[in-house]
Amino acid sequence: MSSPFRRIEEPSDCWVEIQIDGQTTRAREGDSVAAAMLASGLSSSRTTPISGAPRAPYCMMGVCFECLVEIDGIPNRQSCQIVVQEGMQICRQIGTAEGYR
Amino acid sequence: MEQHELVIIGGGPAGLAAAATAAKAGVESLLMDEQATPGGQVYRAVGETSVQRAALLGPDYQRGRELVEQFNDSGAGYLPNTTLWNLNDQREIGILRDGQASLICADRVIIASGAMERPIPFPGWTLPGVMTAGAGQILLKSSGLVPGNGLVLAGVGPLLLLLAWQYLRAGVKIHAILDMAPTGNLWKALPHLPNALRAHHYILKGLQYQLQLKWAGVKFFNGVTDLQAVGNDSLEAVEFTHRNSRQSIKTPLLFSHFGVIPDSHLSRCTACDHRWDSAQLCWRPVTDEWGNSSLDGISVIGDGAGIGGAVAARHAGRVAAFESVRALGYMNEKQRDEAAREDQRWMKDDLRIRPFLEALFRPPSALLSESEDKTLVCRCEEINAGEIRCAIRAGHEDTNQIKFLTRCGMGPCQGRQCDNAVSQIVAHELGVDMLVAGGYRIRPPIRPLTIEQLAALDVGSVSK
Question: Could you give phi then psi for residue B463, rounded to 5 degrees?
């Protein structure tokens, strides 16, 4: 997956490992989950429950709810508002989230 | 129920200044914020950001550091990572922290919820690869992420220029800047220029950004209309009309921006009085010169009360803090007037630029209420402008009726993205005032809350 984003290199970089849809990837400490997904090259983070259209983080500040994903088993989390933690399990949300149906 | 003297909601310049000022005056003050660190959107991550990133972002951003330090040294309480799902006229505040919901209460509440970008529907705006300019800037501030294969910037407003300038310094390839301000805006803005010159540093900065961008060879297209994002599963190209010719630019990213509006969900949830501001094109709470809303003990300040920018927000925070100090009995009226005088003067001076900016960067009316029928207006429920017009023609005459009929505004974002657009379509189609068209009625919970969290609500001893 190639991301349309790149990192500005910084000497003070600290990294954590997270899993996105089972794939291990690296995120910078302090990244929101949404930022980590965009950096990893994930083109969409969910599909809509209505038409199944792909969506990705849009506003990055908690007002559009496009970045909803499942984090550590809990669906419908606003990934732009949650900071990555070592070992976090992130899953794209396909259509209506489980447990929300 | 946990009780506080003063609760400040929002950790941007208004909230930080209010909390620091009130705490230093001896008021027990608690600031709660959604973010992990203080700064709001404008000074996001200012305390943690690396030297390189801070240098890229420029001196205005770095000025936030002082504000954060004053807050940290003030003795005010601080609840980061805290989501608010309710605030009522009794000043009972529903919060969510670490998955635990609880209710707390305050003698005074200062809402400093800040701004959000004005959502403007255009064809393709839901495609992955299309984001807002504000989102791009947040990625830069918080994560040092920038477009790697270039981008197109489109829309109206000073943030577009600022972000382009920051990207230029970061070595990002800007394929084009599509300026969508109607050409007539400049003439409408000119009468406001003499007054705006009192805050001329803003204008000089804008000109400087523009010059540096043009110098660097960034392509500007002025008077752009009919913006469209094109692609199958993600953005492939941006199409637009410029001087009567249809153009297309291949790009993996489009960042759009159409100005900012108050993030009014929380103030509207309290049901304090709001009015439609026809210059800023947004709902804003009715407040007096101290920031007091129509509800006892609740004030709304900063961009959340009407767009004035970060500097005015800081002064508004201090002014509202002195008013709270007075209302809580730590100061008399004369002492408050004395304490707040300087900030009121600075705020007034700084706000002089606003009528000029509002006229210069007014989004084209074609984008506000005349979206093509097939353009999605409600991103969540996927309702297009045609369906909204259909509901209007069927006899539904206000925004809330349209919501009940079509489900627009009932998805996860609870109408944050389509509210203004739907109201403006209703007002335009029926030829009525925005107050008649109305906005969505905002009800708690205004943030997602699971039934489990609600059932486990910690209310302590409920007083009523």
Answer: -85, -25
C-alpha B448/C-alpha B266 separation (Å) is 14
Residue B293 CA to residue B296 CA, distance in Å, equals 7
- Taking CB atoms and an 8 Å cutoff, what residues of chain B touch A30? 45, 48, 142-143
Number of H helices, E strands in chain B: 19, 22
User: Which structural domain range is residue B106 located in?
Assistant: 2-116+261-331
What average pLDDT score do residues B197-206 get? 90
Please state the pTM of the whole predicted model: 0.96
Rounded Cα gap, residues B152 and B172, in angstroms: 11
Q: Nearest chain A Cα to B131, which residue?
A: A58
List, in sequence order, every residue forming a beta bridge with B104; answer none if it has no partner.
B2, B93
Tokens for B52?
């390189």
Q: Specify the CATH number of the domain A15-94.
A: 3.10.20.740
ipTM above 0.90, yes or no: yes
Six-digit token string for B334: 């004369």
Distance in Å, alpha carbon of A91 to nearest chain B alpha carbon: 17
Instruction: Please give the mean pLDDT across all residues of chain B.
Output: 95
Nearest to B109 by CA among B266, B330, B297: B297
Chain A residues close to B380, C-beta within 8 Å: 48, 65
The number of residues making up chain B comes to 464
Q: Where are the domains of chain A?
A: 15-94
Cβ distance B144 to A28 less than 8 Å, yes or no, reads yes
Report yes or no: A48 at the B interface, CB cutoff 8 Å.
Answer: yes
- Asked if A52 reaches chain B (Cβ–Cβ under 8 Å), the answer is no
- Tell me, yes or no, whether B58 and B77 share the same domain: yes
**Distance between CA B300 and CA B317 in Å, rounded?**
9
Residues B168-188 have a mean pLDDT of 96
pLDDT tens digit sequence for B105-163? 999 999 999 999 999 999 999 999 999 999 999 999 999 999 999 999 999 999 999 99
Confidence tier at A97 by pLDDT (50, 70, 90): low
Regarding whether B381 and B303 lie in a shared domain, the answer is no
B6: tokens are 């003063």
Residues B139 and B248 in one domain: yes
pLDDT of residue B313: 98
Cβ pair B299, B10 in contact under 8 A: no
Chain A CA closest to residue B126? A55
| For A12, nearest residue in chain B (alpha carbons) | B50
